[in-house]
Structure formats: structure tokens, C-alpha cells
Amino acid sequence: MLGLMQGQPLLISSLIMFAERHHGDTQIVSRRVEGDIHRYTWADVGRRARQVARALDAQKLDFSDRVATLAWNGYRHLELYFGVSGSGRVLHTINPRLHPDQIAWIAEHAEDRVLCFDATFLPLVQAVHGRCPGIRQYVMLCDAKALPADTGIPNLVAYEDWIGRHPAVYDWPEFDENSASSMCYTSGTTGNPKAALYSHRSTLLHAYAAALPDVMGLSARDSVLPVVPMFHVNAWGIPYSAALTGCKLVFPGGALDGKSVYELIEAEGVTYAAGVPTVWQMLLGHMGPNKLRFSTLNRTVIGGSACPPAMITAFREQYGVEVLHAWGMTEMSPLGTLCTLKNKHQSLPEDEKMKIRLKQGRAIYGVDMRIVGDDGETLPWDGKTYGDLQVRGPWVVREYFKGEGGDPLREGWFPTGDVATIDADGYMQITDRSKDVIKSGGEWISSIDIENIAMAHPAVAMAACVGMPHPKWDERPLLVAVKKPGAEVSREELLAFYEGKTAKWQVPDDVVFVDAIPLGATGKMLKTRLREQLKDYRLPSV
Ligand code: AMP
What we know:
The protein is α/β, with parallel strands linked by helices. It contains 16 helices and 25 strands.
């Protein structure tokens, strides 16, 4: 017997219709690439998203055709999120930090038909358009006055003209909720990039789950600053959860330096911010020396890479901001776990609470996870045994776009490539990417643990730990560190700093100071590149 409830499909258009109707006067504030601050409301987003839909109809784009973006976080990008997917096309957010060759490859692989880009990326588009014959229309996110003449790009139009010639009248179509809504290529360090292809259903379920109090905990009382880019897993789904909750949104544009982000937080009464650790490093680096304080910010969700304990402590103790440590990946839309305490933890002493907060957190309802050993056997949840982390759920990838890379699943589970422990309360802790684990004398050393200790040293801005070949131990850890501007620390001082903080055999064999650690397009340390740079390096004991 089937249930007798109504069966409206879960569609992204329903989010913008809801935000428009129930939170129509709530503000969306953007720092524009033009330099000024732009301000309008959810009602305006809805109106202009309908104009986007009509512009795509006029372009004769079919259902499921791809519309690409190369854009910062801003209001026009938000309109594309709803206008493109809401009208049944697929939004393909391209990471502009990728190499132009990769961008051209991705645009062709995705079969993009329209490319919308911020003025910042005009040179990039000029460099790649010749290699993207499938793109019929280029749209610069600006008004006609700002569109330069003689760009050399055929079929280029200013966004305001492109949508402006259409009325804001449009009936959002109804279709199967399993239809594709957006896509995102993984940063993939090996092989060709692979795309996760999200559906309306997966996006809406994720948006519901992400908004829960123990997850992102968003509400209509929040003013939310997604610093995490809209080209990185849909800004962790925040645009969708924001429409679902009706919160105020504040977009930083391309100005991600500490000063700009701080000023925006203060000016717009931001209560909630989301980003990767590197961005918060820049913010704290600006606030400390200038003796600044937050007047409204009370929560920040940090993920994408392990959040150093020193950062959690600084936010909590110096600035009174709660840090929510999150873990996920492109293939998971992206949220998998979030770290919040349980009722029984409330009475624990502060240092015990802190031990929990450092973990990547508990699974969100909807995400099933397990750790497995080398032979695929499931491992116990004891907080000590580590294994390969696998996940499954309605917003986890089943297959990559065009079947790239073959079947990614193992007995129905998606292998994340992360190595983790899970404790009896279900708190998961990543110890490494499987390829970054250091194997020393048959024991595993977590590079994240070793990096976290170094990053707690006041003179260290960033640290990476990599395994170096060793004839006796197989591998030994080497610490690569960047000093804070003007700060001093010697190799010996840094190694002595490990005393009492980790087992002796886990202390790095050596320290190499560098000016910068190579970062990938999503702000993660590129250990493959670092290892290449260190190919002539030999440990002192070798
Ligand atoms: P991406 O698909 O580019 O978002 O990368 C996903 C990968 O980032 C995960 O598989 C993890 O290796 C890493 N990652 C994300 N969040 C965290 C976190 N909180 N701690 C440690 N690693 C993380």
C-alpha cells in the first residue's frame, strides 16, 4: 500500500519561490568586483533568476544543457544558481584557480553551452575561448558600460543586457527531482578531473540536512558570510540552505584578505561565516596585530582541510566565536560530518570538550559511514583503530559524469580516500589522506597531527609534514614550515616543541623552512608538488 501524501518533486525552484515569498525583504549584500557594495533582497533574486531562465530559453538551451560560471561569490552568481537549475539546465561552476588548459578541458568535457564570468576572469576567458568550440554564448557579469570593446571573444554580451531584455515573468517548470541540477569537477591530483553531478533531490535533501541545528544551524536570524567559494562544491550548499531558512547573505566577492573580510563582517552584522582554514588564518593574522574584536560573529564553520587546534582555540578563547569543524568532499555535496557536542558532554571539563572539538565530527543524518581495513573488513568504532573511510547516502556520488574513472563504489560504498578513526560515540577523526599517511617501521604517523603541533608554535604560519624515504624505517617524517612574517624559530627549537606532545618516534627527523607551501585550487596543500620540490632532499640520518 502506498502512502497517500502529495508527491511534489523536490526542485531547486521551490527554494527560491519560498525565499521570495517568505523572506522577500531579507537582504543579500555583495562586495562587487567593481569595488562597491551592492544590496538587494531575496525578492530581487527571485525576479532576476526568472529573467535568467528566460534568457536561457531565448538562447534555445535544452533541458539539462550546461551553463558554466567562472565567478566569485556575489548576487549575480546567486541568480544563476536558481535561474539555471530552476529552469532545468545544469549549473557548472568552474574553479578559476585551475590552470587554463584544465579549464578548457573541463568546459569541453562538460559540453558547456554558455559561460558566465566575472570581469576579473576576462583574461582567462580570452586565453581559453578558442579551445571551447561548444560554448555558444559568453556573458560577462557586468552592465553594458563595463563591457570592454575588442575583447576578441565572439558572442560576448553584458549580463545586465542578456537578462534585462526579458520580463521577470516565468513559470518554473516541474520535472523529475532526480534530474541533474549542478556539477562540480574534483580537484583530482591524478588522472583527468572527474565531475560530481548533483540532482535536484540530492541538493534539497542536503540543504535540509545542512540547515539542522547540529549541522550548519542556519536560521532567519542569521547574517551569513560564505567565504567558501561558490565554485567549490556550491559553497558547501549554503546558497540553497540560505534560501530554505531565509537568512541574510553577505558575499565577499574576490576580496578575501583579512582586512576586507573583517570589515564586511562588522559592517553587515555577520553572525555566521564559513570557510577553509587558510582564509581564517588571514583574518586572524589581520585582527591580532590590530587588536580587533568581533561585535556580532558567533559561529564559524571550518572545513576543507583539517582545522588546526590553535585556530579553534584562538576563535573560542580570544574572540568568543564557536568553531564548527566540518568534513566532506565534492563527491558528498559536500557535507559528511560536523563536530558538535552531545548533551552528555556538557558537563565535561574544558580540555575534554576540546579533545572532541578537534575531531571532524559526527555523521549527519543521511550519511552512513564506516572504516574498513586492507581486506575490506569493517573495523571497530573505538577511537583508536584507523582504516579507510567509506560513505553512502542520498547526496553521495554513485558514478562520475560520463562514467569517468569507472565504477567508484565498493559494495555500494564510496571510498573517500581518507584514513580515519571513529569512536564509540560516532565521532570521526581524519588522520590523513590515504596517500599522505607516513609509514614508519610498520607504524602509521598522522601527518595532520604533526602539522597541528607545529602550527601551534607562535612563529609558524603554515606547516606540512611529508614522509621521506628511509632505508631502515621505510619512511620518516619531514616537517616543512613557513614562518610568520617577522617571526624567528630555529630547526632545533621547533623540534624541541614536540617534546611531550607526541610519541618520540613520531617527531619529525628534520625541518625545512620555505617561503610558501604549494596550495591547490581549493586551498589544500599540494603534497605531490611539495614532494617534487623536495626530490633532491635527503634526511640527515640517510
Ligand atoms: P574536496 O573534494 O576538494 O572538497 O576535498 C575533499 C577532501 O578534503 C576530503 O576527502 C579530505 O581529505 C579533505 N577534508 C575536507 N574537510 C576536512 C577536514 N575538516 N579535515 C581534514 N580533511 C578534510
